Amino acid sequence: MINTLYLPELREMLNENDGAELREFCTAIHPARTAEFMEGLTAGESWQVMRHAPPWLRGQIFAFLDEEKQLEILESQDRSEIADLVGDLAADDRVDLLDDIDEEIVEELLPLMPTEERREFLRLRSYPEGSAGAVMTTEAAKLDENLTVEAALQELSRQAMELETIYYLFIVDDTDHLRGLVSARQLVSAIAKPDVKLSDLMETDLVTADVMEDQEDVARKVAKYDLLAIPVVDHEHRMLGIITHDDVIDVMREEAREDAHRIAAVEPFEASYSKTPLLLLSWKRGIWLTVLFLFALLTAAALRHYDEQLARWGWLAWFLPLVISSGGNTGSQTATLIITAMALGDVKPSDWLRVVFKELGTGLVLGGFLATIGFAAAAMMATSVRDAMVIPFTLLLVVLCGTFSGAVLPLVFRRLGLDPALMSSPFVAGIIDIVGIVIYINVAMVVLSRV
Amino acid sequence: MINTLYLPELREMLNENDGAELREFCTAIHPARTAEFMEGLTAGESWQVMRHAPPWLRGQIFAFLDEEKQLEILESQDRSEIADLVGDLAADDRVDLLDDIDEEIVEELLPLMPTEERREFLRLRSYPEGSAGAVMTTEAAKLDENLTVEAALQELSRQAMELETIYYLFIVDDTDHLRGLVSARQLVSAIAKPDVKLSDLMETDLVTADVMEDQEDVARKVAKYDLLAIPVVDHEHRMLGIITHDDVIDVMREEAREDAHRIAAVEPFEASYSKTPLLLLSWKRGIWLTVLFLFALLTAAALRHYDEQLARWGWLAWFLPLVISSGGNTGSQTATLIITAMALGDVKPSDWLRVVFKELGTGLVLGGFLATIGFAAAAMMATSVRDAMVIPFTLLLVVLCGTFSGAVLPLVFRRLGLDPALMSSPFVAGIIDIVGIVIYINVAMVVLSRV
What is the pTM of this model? Predict the structure, then answer.
């Protein structure tokens, strides 16, 4: 749904080249809204509008455009104006964007960018994707511990508009080693004591992120300690940058989406669903579907192996989907519960014994209940009540097998250092399909042969 | 995993009743760490330690304890001390906690709490769970638009330690109507112009949350506009409170977990996995498992209906799990993709036509590919290559049916105002199981009868 509220007015202002009105449009409202109202404009038109915003605001509006339009503007507009725009972006956004455009254009833009921003870009780009270094920004308030409250306020006032956040002041020594932190809250509280030094206010027990740390772990820390921003340090505790709360929210949304996709056996992809082309989407799904399909071929082989039993007791085939879906459903339930509990830090691989017992207990309750309904249904459909006994025994065993593998497989994957979400629900279900068939036919042979 | 690093020292300090050391332990480190180091202590011991912290910090440490211990402390310790503690908690945390303890104890605590906190508690408690009102806190910096920058800084300095955040100053009129917002960043930038009035600095185009708005929608707004906090207003635009970034992160984590559970057909539950008792867990899973089981019983009925065909072409049963799992897996993939895309605002019900075409296209690609492998496998196992043709035709149709229902069902649920995540993967898979069987046997009748 594209916001078309101001489209006609915007187009008219553009046609009449009405500078005053366009400037008013860019400055009067929140940059995210300015960007939203321009959704219906082409990249070129949007850029014509944004050129009327003051440079510092231009970067902010640009940051709220959708990525496709951002890339089109970067690739199509005047190089020197674009270099200025890129220079005004937050350091982390700059790296994300330039990573996605044509390398040749980046090479043309780099010499046009201010030296400091260029160096920063080259440094940030060197961190691997998904690491703290790749999401951090370098625009943090760094101050000397010998500053007084008054001097710090003035220094901050000077820099306030350029920094990503002024709400945490990081105290560093001459060589950028992180010594402590003073929150703007503490600083403001101390206004009445202007001569107090920052070293007397600062907290020294800090939560930090290592520059190579996984972004998901960093997000968890920020959430746990309710931080506004987390400082990123190297192995010598030198401060390299910060990751702010809004980036943490983005990381968490992205990771939640990826986990959900993995759980449904879809290989994660970068762009949104609606912007990912059909063939790429088919590939991301096809890889896992094929693996699952090959698994399922084993069920065909297993059933062929039991051909004699299936021919003898034809009604067994009726309950085949029921048996395997019961196992599969309980298995995916358990797998999802354990995967999300591990993602939130609630369950750890060392808890495996407790988890397995709990799941076997749950399996007994659920399996017992399904076995009862299953028996009633089978008794009505099968040739005799005695024959129908195959179904409840099978269901109980298959459900137990589902809760057991749903619990153990993600734990094992985590223990092996793999993403437990790889042990996706369809995967667990696929394994149980085969095991379920083997259980089913063997129970049938035991029960029915005695008749 | 419980942090046992300081346990022996803590126990020793407690035994010796070493006030100075215990106070040092409570004040020297981040309250979240203090809470973490006390994980191995009982509720009573933890409270003995925390009593040595100054009251304002006591509330903060308490807020980081795990919920079980919090509740035990509230229920077991001296009522008047607890009333003070509860008075010091953030207003939103207070409501969450008192909601979970014995109503009788709440009645005893209420008269002991300061009047203002008591009234606030009673007011906040009246908002329905999941609404903005229920997560907001009332401790925001509210200022008059006629204040100067200097006066505002002083006012803020006075209140800084009591407010949940001082980083946004909300400008309200005499009757609390929200007029505008000045960020602490703007205020600090204007330090050099101390006589400027807030009305000249404030932004008036504000993003707000309605007090009855769903917490998930509010979280999405905060994420979209990169806010530190969002003001919560009533229908007359009177400011009632704020929701801060850390609460937004908690809401998002909680919602992501609930969505993942719904997708796996587990009814959401409040406590963590490891703290939810086995029987409650079985109930939350059993409800949906039973629904799915009744669905699966329909597959048994369908297969019984086709008993003649199954007896005539016995090998059809071999490929039954393969056929239905292929449909189920593509169906869950699509359902998850559409549900997560809707949760992120990428896909809306009005996009249904585009989504359906994309999914039918993907279904053709994936179905075509699986049909090819399936044909090869069936040709080796079935009685003749001509018989084997049943499998590829069925697979193509079933996969198309999977992508189609996976796309349409969540969209329809959303359109009906229901949670699309209710159209869980096992549910979609269950529907496809039945449709898949009907397709399979009918394709078989067409292909095989012509032989």
Answer: 0.79
* pLDDT higher than 80, residue B425: no
**pLDDT tops 70 at residue B23:** yes
Window 40-69 of A: residues touching B by CB (8 A cutoff) are: none
B134 with B128: CB under 8 angstroms? yes
User: Are A365 and B249 an interchain contact pair (Cβ–Cβ within 8 Å)?
Assistant: no
Give chain B's length: 451
The 3-state DSSP composition of chain A as helix, strand, coil percent (nearest 5) reads 65, 10, 25
Contact status of B167 with chain A (Cβ, < 8 Å): yes
Compare CB distances from A326 to B245, B250, B293 and report the shortest one's residue: B293
Of B28, B245, B328, the CB nearest to A245: B245
* pLDDT 10s digits, B62-97: 988 888 888 888 888 888 888 888 888 888 888 888
| Helical ranges in A101-142 per DSSP H | 103-109, 115-125, 132-135
* A437: contact with B, CB 8 A cutoff: yes
Q: Which domains are seen in chain B, by residue range?
A: 7-126 (1.25.60.10), 135-251 (3.10.580.10), 276-449 (1.10.357.20)
What's the CA gap between B128 and B134, in Å, rounded? Answer: 6
With b for 16 or more beta-carbon neighbours within 10 A and e for fewer, the B274-300 pattern comes to eebeeeebbebbbebbeebbebbbbbb
User: How distant is the Cα of B13 from the closest Cα of chain A, in angstroms?
Assistant: 21
> pLDDT value at position B1?
41
SS3 state of residue A23: helix
Residues B346-360 pLDDT 10s: 888 888 899 999 999
Rounded Cα gap, residues A285 and B362, in angstroms:
9
Residue B451 has pLDDT above 70, yes or no: no
| B169 contacts B187 by C-beta, under 8 angstroms | yes
The reply to whether residue A260 touches residue B192, judged by beta carbons under 8 angstroms, is no
Q: Name residues 135-154 of chain B within 8 A of A (Cβ).
A: 153-154
Residue A140's DSSP bridge partners are A165
Do residues A330 and A405 touch, judged by C-beta distance below 8 A? no
Q: Are strands B140-143 and B165-172 parallel, antiparallel or unpaired?
A: parallel
Question: Coil, strand, or helix at residue B68?
Answer: helix
pLDDT < 50: residue spans in chain A: 1, 451
DSSP H or E stretch at residue A361? helix A352-381
pLDDT digits (tens, 9 = 90+) for B265-283: 888 888 788 888 889 989 9
Q: Is the pLDDT of residue B438 over 60?
A: yes
Q: How far apart are CA B430 and CA B411, in angstroms?
A: 18
Instruction: State the distance between the two ends of chain B, measured CA to CA, in whole angstroms.
Output: 66
- Which pLDDT score is estimated for A450? 64
d(CA A292, CA A428): 10
Contacts of A410 (CB under 8 A, 6+ apart): A335, A338, A339, A342, A420, A421, A423
H helices within A126-243, ranges in order?
A: 132-135, 149-159, 184-189, 198-201, 215-224
Q: Residue B117: what are its φ and ψ, rounded to 5°? A: -65, -35
Put residue B417 in one of left, alpha, beta given phi > 0 → left and psi -120 to 50 → alpha: left
> Distance (Å, rounded) from C-alpha B40 to C-alpha B44?
12
Q: Which residues of A touch B249 (CB under 8 A)?
A: 222-223, 245, 248-249, 252
- The residue of chain B nearest to residue A260, with distances taken between CA atoms, is B260
Rounded CA-CA distance B272/A344 in Å is 9
More confident residue, B127 or A67: B127
**A-contacting residues in B 326-385 (Cβ below 8 Å):** 326, 328-330, 332-333, 335-341, 344, 346-348, 350-351, 354, 358, 361-362, 365-366, 369-370, 373-374, 377, 381
ipTM confidence score: 0.78
Q: What is the pLDDT of residue A225?
A: 87
